[in-house]
Known about the structure:
Number of strands: 0
Keywords: Membrane, Transmembrane, Transmembrane helix
Strand content: under 5%
Largest sheet: none
Domain Inositolphosphotransferase Aur1/Ipt1: 86-252
Number of domains: 1
Distance between the termini: 48 Å
Number of helices: 12
Protein name: Inositol phosphorylceramide synthase
Region (Disordered): 267-286
Shape: globular
Helix content: over 70%
Pfam families: PAP2_3
Radius of gyration: 20 Å
Amino acid sequence: MVLFQSMTTVSWLTAAAFILLMWFGSMKNPITIAGIFIRQLFTSRTYLFHILALVAILVLNNVELKIENAMNLQWDFTPFIHQIEGNFVHHFQQWFRNDWVTTIVGFFYVVIFQALLLSSLSIYTAEKKNQMVYATVYAVMINYIIAIPFYLFFPVNEVWSYAPAQVQFLMLDIFPNFEQQYRALSGLNNCFPSLHTSVSVTLAILAIRSGNKRWAIFSTISAVIIVFSIFYLGIHWLTDMIGGLVLAGTASTLGYWLAHRNTLRSPSTLSVPGREGVPKQPLDQR
């Protein structure tokens, strides 16, 4: 079943998922959350700086593809990875293959993965947990900063593109124009480590540490489905997933530690109009 006709469809579905998850995770009106977010951008330079830093690292990820093309490196570690793993992904895909499974995991891989990051930032902002906002920003940045050098100097092609692996690219069943419209966002040889694994698991770990049980449960379930999807859809190797898990553990730990350290150093996070003379408290403590 074709789920995505174009990137326009992906964008609309992501926006809808984002709005729904904001409400689900915070139990607040999404418009109210948007108001809190905008107020934070204009009243807290620290908050604004962190959001801009996150945007910058996401832009850098796209620039990486151009740098990689300019470097024109000839080596390829895909045969080495296949020699280690054999046809694990092929057998995994064949065991679970089903049209409905393809539709569900494809939706999580393309839409929910993007909405998770945006929703996490919005939910923590709505709950006035700036420490968790900063932890999320740091952790995601660490994910990309560590992964990008591997993409540049340790190229591994997606499983489906390596003929001896005997794997089908099931994403095309639900997104026929994936290669023409989505590929520009993700290089064919940017496999190790799996960022879909590392970022989704990172967000789940931080959600658990946030104290929001509802969001922790959903984020954890989403991470499990997304990790499942990287094999099922024929995209990543088992080695990519293991690397992603190690990266997630590292990034979430460092991100949380950095946020906690910075919060202790600078407890004031939000100015309230009309209360300029009143000592400010950390948002997490209100």
